Sequence to fold (437 residues):
Amino acid sequence: MKAPADLLLLPQWVVPVDPAGTLTDHAVVVQDGRILDVLPADAAQARYAAAQTLTLPGQALIPGLINLHGHAAMTLLRGMADDLPLMSWLNDRIWPAEKQHVSEAFVRDGTLLAAAEMLAGGITTCNDMYFFPRAAAEAFQQAGMRAVLGMIVLEFPSAYASDADDYLSKGLALRDELKDEPLLGFTFAPHAPYTISDASFGRIGTLAEQLGLPIHTHLHETADEIQHSLSQHGVRPLERLARLGLLGPHFIGVHAVHVTDAEIDLLAQHGCHVAHCPSSNLKLASGIAPLARFAAAGVNTGLGTDGAASNNRLDLFAEMRLAALLAKGVSGDAAALPAAAALKMATLDAARALNLDDRIGSIVPGKRADLVAVDLRDLACQPVFDPVSHLVYVAGREHVTHVWVDGILKLHDRRLVDLDPDDLTTRAAYWRGKLTA
Ligand SMILES: [Zn+2]
Fold:
């Protein structure tokens, strides 16, 4: 007798990420939201009676992409302030706009827009950091997208919270309430060394250890940030965090553009992770993170889009390609960051940074069924020698046709299943009106 299954997927190629390489004429079997089996297509059809079978000719099935750093609600600020360096972008444009407009409604609408963009582009999980994380959580749940919510902390007041303690207590209350939600996770998200005091960092370090949660913070993004730390604290930011006991396998440093070899070794020694956001770093002229040196030192690195105000796309296909090209150009080594490594950064390595690699990041039996089908039949993708190479160097998010999160279909033939693009467009226009009034 055949074994029951919810879904039998028959793509032309399966790219499991772990192990590396491509499986041809294989099936992926899904049951109860998890990957039940990966096996040759003939054997799968003999062994399983699936409620639904989907043939995906010319398509590569990959693990859902994981956006290791973003500020989802900032989609509503997309294109509002371009062509400025980080500090004037933040101080003169972004922070004043946020101060005036950011509210629960803003975050809910902006996060929903981001979730729609990310899901349509093959991103099934994001690691988010923004004000009003409760509103973000509601939006991610409405979208049915997996999200790790940052319990954001800043020293200065916003519409969301008054001081670091207030941010922290609001974040912890939310986490207490939602910690058993299957698609949600939490990190401590102190914004950056230049916006957080030693006392707050110390408290966050203690809490992170007690609760077993990651710490997610911007780090060494610009040369200015380093100078500021030297004048305020007498040491560079990373050294300061090391002295405060913040570094460890639970630590995700975002950007790490300006780092010395000794600092890269320090990150490696502590088992820290880096979220590499190459588009954002280029657009704000912050610099280029030394990816090949991270890899050589053994620093686990994932890819992030950062917010749509500094990218301006939430597009991990673009980040994979850019990361691979920059790594080669900067290191002078065309073998730096091969395609398979770039894809791994956008999937399994990011899962590892979030301590979710036992659940997501690769197409392996037992993991949750976060899956993405990428159509390589497009003329611009011909011929196909190696699907993995094409996923990084040729294909784009426009080639994503189907997306499942936890085994549930979220994108069907390039159409969002649960979210209404017209409604999202109307909401975005409403906020554009408010921001320009
Ligand atoms: Zn950021």
